[in-house]
Design a protein that fits this description.
The complex is a heterodimer of chains A (476) and B (476).
Chain A (H helix, E strand, L loop, with lengths): L5 E6 L5 H8 L18 E7 L2 E8 L6 H10 L7 H12 L6 H11 L3 E7 L9 H10 L3 E6 L7 H8 L5 E4 L7 H12 L3 H37 L3 E6 H6 L2 H30 L7 E2 L14 H7 L3 H22 L7 H17 L8 E3 L6 E6 L5 H20 L8 E2 L13 H15 L6 H25 L1
Parallel strand pairs in A: 1-3, 1-4, 4-5, 5-6, 8-11
Antiparallel strand pairs in A: 2-3, 7-10, 9-10
Helix pairs in contact in A: 2-5, 3-4, 7-8, 8-10, 8-14, 8-16, 10-14, 11-14, 12-13, 12-15, 14-16, 15-16
Chain B lengths: L1 H18 L4 H17 L6 H11 L12 H30 L8 E2 H23 L6 H6 L13 H30 L4 E2 L8 H11 L14 H6 L14 H5 L2 H37 L1 H11 L3 E2 L27 E5 L9 H4 L4 E5 L5 H15 L6 E7 L6 H13 L5 E7 L7 H16 L4 E3 L7 H6 L8
Parallel strand pairs in B: 1-2, 4-5, 4-6, 6-7, 7-8
Helix pairs in contact in B: 1-11, 2-12, 4-7, 5-7, 5-11, 7-11, 14-15
The chains are: A alpha/beta (476), B alpha/beta (476).
Chain lengths: 476, 476
């Protein structure tokens, strides 16, 4: 696309230009440091769809000698009409002058047709000292937008907004670290409004970004579903010779297998975390989360973890009834409805009763030792006997996904995955609750799951993610 | 045809498993590229094209993991099929030879042959029902041959595939039986007769045979027995007199026997084989359409890839934020310069009073005004024994090259021994802000590499200065 708009993100050094670019280009590898001059060269970040560029963001160095530049421009201009040409002339003259390297880098895209995105820090007081650089930008004659980014906690945005309104077509507030995704799209649409020809590509770009986000949610659900399947049906196996079997007591063998089982479960959960972070293009996150350690206070079966991510007996009973009824429907179908729904009812009651009595059990996986065959004996530990384990893993996974999906790429703080203090699954529709419970029960009972059920499970997890979103919204 | 669908399903599944190690972003890019190439070539992106495309561009070799190749797996199925077919031939020959065993004393009982053929028809029907109902009584056999893996994509097809094997064996059994019959007819004189304990008349037996022979009565009339033949070939095992019947008549039954075998042993199996073949095709198509990887592939082919421009990685290029520079005490200075609007009127009186000269520079001042300020300072500094200047800046604003230029120019005009203390000032000093803000100033003076320039803070005063000036409130 020859007309793909370009937006140069410019401003005073250290005001969050790179943060804005990092968030909008979903790139957490952009150096963001509280050091003026971190960005020395302009860097382009094109958004392309099927290889076709829709728009390009250009991160630029900050102004270093704005008054000197303005003085030169004023000295070489005679009328308002020649100002843009004068800026070009400045770049031509000082292209190789190290004193004005930063100014040339930041002004060059503007003389090549880029729009101006001028970034200021709304958490610091307004200062008229920035007027020299704003004047230079006005001289370029390019469509311009000012962005009030807030790096610190103070808020001087109102003053900034009034002042910037004197120099720029549009003034918007945008917190690069905290702005939700909808605001990213809204901001991009505003970029498109700077010039009529830019509206269409930016609208298209935001549409594609929305679709991509929707699909990421679905892919995250698939990843969670696959991990749940792997974790819930995981068995730690070991083959022992007769000698080994005699030397090792059952307790010692169980301890060894259990430790290995925990280790592998943690590894599976870690892989899921990384996969979801990669999906959302977060490659450098540092996490702080309670590990899946059985013995600590974050023990999956401890009261604390159970209260955080497990489900109550009432929930288990209801979901158990639904899951049982789903299975019982098979009997009704087989009798062509002549059982008058008795299959579903009986299945429901059995499922509910099982879940009700099961709800209080904190069952660890058990050690199974096989019979001696060809001088060898096999021992296995797992799969987990408690479907609560599934709810705990699901809760932790959805919680992590939620934080990642909301995290902007300008964020550099530690990702703190504190457990919840209320039960979010209540926000999930009954049908999805039934499907999740049914699948957990199947895994627990070592039964296989067909592709159709698996797809339904993924849909139910997607619904669970939406429910979590809703629950968080209600908490806020 | 069915094998090609099976091969496609297996190849797709193998690719799906191989792709699970790849990131979704990469897979989307790869498959969308393929879809766009197909679009350019006016072709539809079918699964076959997709697979051959991947094979062409990738390594077509074997997988290192546990994923079996299509040839390996289908080879095992073919082996099983051949084994059963061979067994069918052998058993067919033995069964027919047994049925036609004739040592000259007793006739070959047609009723027994008919019952055997009926049993074969029944077995064929049971196999068809078993396949339609997904019943897998042969599951242990498959397990033994390593054909029944938990995650095998052929799982939903196995009943039909097993039925195909059974029917193939049945067809071989039937054809081998016919061949044996024809050989025996040619090399022996077979004496067929009919016998039953039931008090059935020849007429009713003829009616039964007429009904049985109905399918081929027009096709091969000679194979439909006549009433006279039926009447004359009845025999009783207890009867010793069988010499009244013309011996030629005993042999006239063979065309009927051939057709019975063909229509009630071979044909049902052939029909079952065709049905199983169709079932395999339909189920293979459905299994592919329902394959978890298919939904994802369709999405990847149909949806444009959105590249947000996040390839650029400068995470390793972050500036070094360490500095050896230390804060030092404020010098006893009589000159105060406010840089870029700093300080005035925010500075406390303790800092502003007692100076002979107060100047402003940077910010909204012109460069000429800066030079004049430097000159005025130079005039005063030239008269002092210990010339020193305090340069107040806004702590939160980063030091830019303009300040560097100013200091350089000042040093050129001021006495060589002039000390310059930079005072980055924040009106609302908090513990959080000070280290963050001061770091950039300390690194700035470190870059200047001049021992007569340092950074100071209001609470760091030299003993002389402290004696000379009153300690300000709130800055202890």
């Amino acid at each position: 696309m020859a007309d793909a708009p370009v937006f140069a993100v410019v401003g005073h050094p250290n005001k969050g230009k790179s943060s804005v670019v990092a968030t909008l280009s979903q790139n957490d590898a952009i150096a963001i440091a509280l050091e003026p001059g971190t960005t020395r060269k302009r860097q382009s970040y094109p958004l392309s769809v099927d290889g076709q560029v829709m728009y390009t963001l250009v991160d630029t160095p900050g102004f270093q000698r704005p008054r000197r530049v303005l003085e030169w421009l004023e000295a070489h201009s005679v009328a308002v009409s020649d100002r843009a040409e004068t800026v070009k002339a400045f770049i031509n003259q000082f292209r190789d002058d190290p004193r004005f390297a930063d100014e040339c880098e930041l002004l060059a895209p503007l003389t090549e047709g880029a729009g101006v995105i001028y970034v200021v820090d709304g958490s610091t007081p307004y200062s008229p000292q920035h007027e020299a650089e704003m004047t230079i930008l006005r001289w370029t004659g390019r469509p311009s937008l000012a962005l009030i980014n807030s790096i610190g906690t103070d808020d001087h945005s109102d003053t900034w907004e009034r002042a910037l309104g004197q120099f720029f077509q549009v003034v918007r507030r945008f917190n690069a670290v905290r702005a939700p995704f909808e605001q990213h799209l809204s901001l991009l649409k505003t970029f498109g409004q700077l010039e009529p020809a830019w509206e269409r590509p930016l609208d298209n770009a935001t549409r594609f970004l929305s679709e991509q986000r929707y699909q990421r949610r679905r892919e995250a659900a698939s990843l969670i579903a696959a991990t749940l399947e792997g974790m819930m049906s995981f068995r730690e196996k070991r083959t022992l010779t007769v000698q080994q079997a005699t030397d090792l007591s059952d307790q010692a063998l169980a301890d060894q297998l259990r430790d290995q089982w925990y280790k592998n479960q943690r590894k599976k959960e870690e892989h899921l975390r990384i996969a979801i972070e990669r999906l959302y293009q977060h490659n450098r996150i540092q996490r702080q989360e309670a590990e899946l350690v059985w013995h600590s206070e974050h023990d999956l079966f401890s009261e604390r973890s159970r209260a955080a991510w497990g489900v109550g007996r009432r929930y288990l009973t209801t979901a158990g009834f639904g899951a049982g009824a789903l299975s019982g429907l098979g009997i009704d179908a087989a009798t062509l409805g002549h059982s008058l729904g008795a299959g579903a009812l009986i299945g429901g009651i059995v499922g509910a009763a099982g879940s009700y009595f099961y709800g209080d059990r904190l069952s660890l996986p058990v050690l199974n030792t096989g019979i001696l065959k060809d001088g060898l004996k096999t021992a296995s530990f797992g799969p987990v006997q408690d479907s609560q384990f599934g709810y705990v893993v699901l809760g932790r996974a959805v919680n992590h996904w939620w934080h990642i999906s909301l995290r902007n790429h300008a964020g550099r703080e530690l990702l703190d995955l504190a457990p919840a203090n209320d039960h979010w699954l209540e926000f999930l529709d009954r049908q999805s609750q039934k499907i999740i419970h049914q699948v957990f029960e199947r895994y627990r009972k070592k039964r296989s799951v067909d592709d159709k059920t698996r797809q339904n499970f993924i849909s139910a997890i997607t619904a669970a993610m939406n429910a979590f979103d809703q629950w968080r919204l209600n908490q806020a | 045809m069915a094998d090609s669908r099976l091969r496609r399903l297996l190849a797709f599944d193998r690719q799906f498993r191989r792709d699970q190690a790849q990131s979704p972003v990469f897979l989307h890019r790869r498959d969308r590229r393929f879809a766009l190439d197909c679009q350019d070539g006016h072709e539809s992106p079918t699964v076959d094209r997709w697979l051959s495309h991947l094979q062409r561009i990738g390594q077509p070799g074997r997988d290192a993991g546990t994923v079996q190749t299509e040839d390996e797996l289908l080879g095992r199925w073919r082996g099983l099929l051949s084994g059963f077919a061979l067994a069918g031939v052998i058993i067919g020959v033995i069964a027919m030879a047994g049925l036609l065993f004739f040592e000259g004393g007793q006739r070959i009982n047609l009723t027994l042959l008919l019952a055997f053929a009926a049993l074969q028809s029944l077995l064929a029907i049971v196999t068809m029902v078993q396949s339609a109902a997904n019943w897998q009584p042969w599951h242990p056999v498959l397990k033994r041959f390593g054909l029944s893996r938990r995650e095998s994509p052929l799982k939903p097809l196995m009943p039909a595939m097993m039925a195909r094997i059974a029917h193939t064996a049945g067809v071989c059994f039937g054809l081998a039986g016919i061949a044996t019959l024809l050989v025996l007819v040619a090399i022996q004189d077979l004496a067929f007769g009919w016998s039953t304990t039931l008090s059935a008349s020849a007429e009713s037996y003829h009616r039964l045979l007429g009904a049985i022979a109905w399918p081929w009565q027009t096709l091969w009339p000679a194979a439909v027995p006549e009433l006279a033949l039926v009447e004359s070939t009845r025999f009783f095992r207890a009867s010793v007199d069988s010499g009244t019947t013309n011996p030629q008549l005993w042999g006239q039954w063979w065309p009927f026997v051939v057709m019975v075998w063909l229509f009630y042993v071979v044909m049902p199996r052939l029909a079952g084989l065709i049905l199983a073949q169709i079932q395999i095709q339909i189920r293979a198509r459905k299994a592919l359409a329902r394959h978890p990887g298919m939904v994802a592939l369709d999405y990847r082919l149909e949806t444009p890839t959105v590249d947000t421009g996040n390839q650029h990685n400068e995470a390793e290029d972050s500036p070094d934020e360490q500095t050896a520079a230390q804060l030092r005490a404020l010098p006893d200075s009589q000159i105060l310069i406010y840089w870029a609007g700093a300080g005035n009127p925010e500075l406390p009186d303790s800092l502003t009073t007692g100076h002979l000269l107060t100047e402003t520079a940077g910010g909204q001042n012109s460069l000429t005004e800066d030079e004049q300020a430097i000159q005025r300072c130079a005039d005063l500094l030239g008269k002092q024994n210990r010339p020193a200047v305090i340069l107040v800046t806004r702590a939160w604003e980063p030091p830019i090259a303009e300040l560097e230029d100013f200091i350089e120019l000042a040093r050129h005009h001021w006495p060589r021994k002039t000390q310059i203390a930079l005072l980055p000032y924040v009106s609302d000093i908090t513990e959080v802000k000070i280290p963050r803000h001061l770091g950039q100033w300390l690194r700035f003076v470190e870059r200047l590499d001049d021992k007569r320039i340092w950074v100071s803070q209001p609470n760091l005063r030299s003993p002389e200065s402290a004696a000379h000036k009153e300690q300000p409130e709130g800055f202890s």
